[in-house]
Amino acid sequence: MNLLENIRESLRAIKGNLLRTVLTGLIIAFGIMSLVGILTAVDSMKYSLTQTFSNLGANSFDIRRKGNNNRGNQQGRAEKVYPEITYEQAKSYKDMMGDEARVSLSAFVSGATVVKSETEKTNPNISVVAADDNYMLNNNLNLEQGRDFSTFEQEQGTNVAIIGNEIATTLFKNQDPVGKYITFLGRRFKVIGKLEVAGSSMGGSSDRRILIPLETGRQIPRAGNTQLNFSIKTGIYKAEELTYVMGEATGRMRSIRQDALGQEDSFEIRRSDSLVQSLDEISGYLKIGGAVIGLITLLGASVGLMNIMMVSVNERTREIGVRKALGATAHQIRQQFLIEAIVICLLGGIVGVLMGIMMGNAIAALIAEGAGFFVPWVWVISGLTICVVVGVISGYYPAFKASKLDPIESLRYE
User: Fold this and answer.
1) What number of H helices and E strands is found in the chain?
2) Alpha-carbon distance 149 to 127, whole Å?
3) pLDDT score of 73
4) Which of 60, 108, 229, 279 is deepest in the core (most CB within 10 A)?
5) Quick check: helix, strand or coil at residue 405?
6) Which segments constitute the MacB-like periplasmic core domain (predicted)?
7) Residue 71: what pLDDT?
8) Cα angle for residues 265, 267, 268 (degrees, 5° grid)
């Protein structure tokens, strides 16, 4: 019953000094708000951006011929030239992967291409990509109008095309491009679809892109009779399996490419989640910075609370003397003031957590468009735990001082 009586006495003391309690609680609340708010904002933005990157193909990897982008010599040594990834090799890989992953094959057919309609033509800045049925899904490309390639068109190499928004705007002003005809690379193609606007978020690349069936791209003659170099993109259904599937893909591609034992890979695998990895690193630094700022604020709040509790002890010296004269032990006095400090911290902490969640989500919504409401339960629990710790640390010395007061001297105190 002593503990319950001490709790009641602490609550009565808090209620009796309501203004001081509110001001002290606000000091704690602002400290917790800064801690929880910053960490909530970081976690909310990270969650939102991670979802966006996932939709952009973050849970995937690309396989390309090693040395695609090598230029000249490195450190005075000529880079080894590896053969292109052929269609047969890419197709074998796709067949071997089966249902383990979603594999798409594509080939860059032409860049700096001029595309013409019956009355208009584009600047020579259009790229042509031959793609299979999984290409749009793996690269997060969506149709605004029209349809995707049919199985028949993919197998037969029909002259049909899906065009980007900028091409449609240039060639077919105020017209529906679907069903119209365009000419490029010496062939006439029927437009069956138009891609959604990519804009600056995607670098605008798909706005100036034309997709044609993979078989159609294989049929188009190339200058110097050079072969197409096929790229492979593998989408993973479960993000946690990415590393495992990459290992499987490496072994299968070495077998398909006939890379000898001990020889380096003649291809390279690039993870598409580098942005997510960078985001994790950046968010880690932001969390550390936010935690430091919040803890510094809480340190100031704890000093303020200790000062308030010392004042409270001085003001209630006579009360302490009366309680000791009636039989209260030093332990009970110490317990009463500790409970009082902890309750003040918890009240301030609850208010601070609520303000921090609101502030963090508001910041995340302003910075990361489309960020949903996020409640960081880990930081909520951590914040309230820190409040208890701050209450114990800040209240212990005043409580200890109160418990050591001499009852006779306390009763004489005016």
Assistant:
1) 13, 12
2) 18
3) 47
4) 60
5) coil
6) 21-228
7) 44
8) 100
> What is the Cα–Cα distance from 300 to 12, expressed in whole angstroms?
26
Q: What is the pLDDT of residues 259-274, one digit of tens each?
A: 888 888 888 888 765 5
3-state DSSP assignment of residue 222:
coil
Instruction: Evaluate if residue 279 carries a pLDDT over 70.
Output: no
For the whole model, what pTM was predicted? 0.55
CA 406 – CA 129 distance, rounded (Å): 89
Which two three-digit tokens encode residue 397? 């010395």
Residue with tokens 């993979």: 214
Rg of the chain (C-alpha set): 34
Q: How many CB atoms lie within 10 A of CB 185?
A: 17
* Residues shown for the chain: 414
Residue with tokens 């803890």: 295
Spatial contact of 375 and 44, defined as CB atoms under 8 Å apart: no
Cβ contact 125:208 at 8 Å: yes
Q: Is the pLDDT of residue 124 over 70?
A: yes
pLDDT-derived band at 203 (thresholds 50, 70, 90) equals very low
Task: Judge contact between 269 and 242, C-beta under 8 A.
Answer: no
Q: What share of the chain is helix, strand, coil (3-state, %, to 5)?
A: 55, 15, 25
Helix (H, G, I), strand (E, B) or coil at 113: strand
Q: What is the mean pLDDT of residues 30-54?
A: 74
The residues spanned by each domain of the chain are: 2-54+277-412, 60-272
Q: For the segment 324-352, what is each residue's pLDDT rounded down to a tens digit?
A: 777 777 877 888 778 888 888 888 888 88
Burial 272-287, CB ≥16 within 10 A → b, else e: bbeebeebeeebeebb
- Give dist(CA 207, CA 198) in Å, integer: 6
289 or 120: which leads in pLDDT: 120
